Amino acid sequence: MTAVQVPELPFVLEPVGPEGGWTYEEGVLTGSAGAKQDRFVPPGGDTLEPASDAPRLLGPAPEGDFQLIARVSVGFAAAFDAGVLYLHVGEREWAKLCLELSPERPTICTVVTRGHSDDVNSAVVEGNSSWLRLSRIGSSFAFHASPDGERWTFVRLFTLGTEEERAAARIGFLAQSPTGDGCTVTFDRIAFRPTGPADLRDGS
């Protein structure tokens, strides 16, 4: 597996996990999950189950506040197929902002994993694409979604890991197909801003 250079990003992306066939061409990043691939640690049970895995493409987040933005399009075929902006701060400390078939309608969903994963559905989306935004603001992270990349809806604010782990955070992209035979996702209009949003809830 080889690194992928996306000109819009100030860092190189490295494949992590199962093979995702990641390619970048003419502004479009494409990756695919295989059958039954997911990154989720079920919250139930008395013992810590091993984390499942899905293809990821990650790079080191620069210091300070930032915004990672992309429009994701998903070739939905089965429940919970998704394209994801992904944040990794530790083996059991990571988060996903997803456009997911959940389970019958495209939906903005989030997962924050602290040992075990939670699972939260947000707004239903018309069609198979949406803009997603992952931001760091100080010691916190924020998720937003948008139908057009102009007006953003606040989805979630959270923190993860220690200060040292957050400083070494990796960010990027993920494809998943937990119940299906595979799923292809594309990311375009990719952008990186070295500042956080001015206001989390005013649509900017």
Features:
204 residues, mainly beta, Jelly Rolls, 8-stranded antiparallel β-sheet, 7-stranded antiparallel β-sheet, globular, DUF1349 domain-containing protein, ConA-like_dom_sf, DUF1349
Written description of the protein model:
- It holds the Pfam family DUF1349.
- This is DUF1349 domain-containing protein.
- It comes from Streptomyces silvae.
- The protein is mostly beta strands.
- The protein has one domain: Jelly Rolls (Sandwich).
- 2% of the residues lie in helices and 50% in strands.
- The strands form 2 sheets. Strands 1, 4, 6, 7, 8, 9, 10 and 14 form an 8-stranded antiparallel β-sheet that branches.
- The radius of gyration is 15 Å and the shape is globular.
- It starts with 13 loop residues before the first strand and ends in an 11-residue tail after the last strand.
- The mean pLDDT is 95.
What's the helix and strand layout?
Blueprint: E1 14-16, E2 23-25, E3 28-34, E4 56-60, E5 66-74, E6 82-90, E7 93-101, E8 106-114, E9 116-117, E10 120-124, E11 129-137, E12 140-146, E13 153-158, H1 163-167, E14 170-176, E15 182-193
InterPro entries: ConA-like_dom_sf (IPR013320), DUF1349 (IPR009784)
Pfam families: DUF1349 (PF07081)
Protein name: DUF1349 domain-containing protein
